[in-house]
């Protein structure tokens, strides 16, 4: 057995939701370590600015919506035409809402379209990016790295311990957990690995606007370490998954042993 070096240097990666939070930290770490990155995010995001900071030879911003086949295909075409291939896809684009199924105090039902929207972006969007990425990765030469690609998705601990108001978000993250193994099985014949990270509480713009005191309190919910995760700790796990070929078809909690309360 000879260990093959799978350092991220020289790889080409697509990161969705790459303009902010966990996705942005992933883009920055991959570029820092020699990967070239197509950053995919909504046109309204900071993508253009972040990509410019990283330099156009390292990072290209492609605006679009993960639920659109046209938009995702356009980003993959950029990976191919500008960087020549696609080795890694990291799905970080996602949205969340907090709405009760039925709010008896306000006598208000959870609007169905809001439920559908979260499922559409988080589940259908992630799947859309996976299927189109797999098609492009399958064109890679397997001999070089003994695999054609790696796909990494982002669930949440809410897939297991959804809190009050998280029916839609938890359902969507549970779906990402559930589809990880079957997709890994589907793509095993293409020599493509599929993994999912289920983060606990991370300090991203999602939480960043909260007062310091509230963030500290949130962080203390984790047994150890009693703090919010740093986005680069998420990115570090992405890198480890890319580098370690035995990781496949599994979901890894990255959460300081937190178990969310109702
Ligand atoms: N921050 C946390 O504590 C935490 C915990 C568990 C899971 N997560 C998950 O991690 C992922 C990233 O979260 P984050 O905290 O970095 O959030 P974030 O809001 O900072 O980043 C998400 C990015 O996704 C983009 N996006 C949203 N909808 C999109 C769409 N339809 N098409 C393309 N891009 C879209 C947004 O523009 C944004 O830049 C999400 O899936 C989130 O559910 C985050």
From TrEMBL:
Single GO MF annotation: testosterone dehydrogenase (NAD+) activity
Highest taxon, organism lineage: Eukaryota
Pathway connected to this protein: Lipid metabolism; bile acid biosynthesis; Amino-acid degradation; L-isoleucine degradation
Key words, A-Z: Oxidoreductase
Protein EC: 1.1.1.159, 1.1.1.178, 1.1.1.239, 1.1.1.53
Reaction catalysis annotation: chenodeoxycholate + NAD(+) = 7-oxolithocholate + NADH + H(+); 5alpha-pregnan-20beta-ol-3-one + NAD(+) = 5alpha-pregnane-3,20-dione + NADH + H(+); 3beta,7beta-dihydroxy-5beta-cholan-24-oate + NAD(+) = 3beta-hydroxy-7-oxo-5beta-cholan-24-oate + NADH + H(+); testosterone + NAD(+) = androst-4-ene-3,17-dione + NADH + H(+)
CDD domains in the record: HSD10-like_SDR_c
GO-annotated biological processes: androgen metabolic process; estrogen metabolic process; fatty acid metabolic process
UniProt xrefs under Pfam families: adh_short
Name by which UniProt lists this protein: 3-hydroxyacyl-CoA dehydrogenase type-2
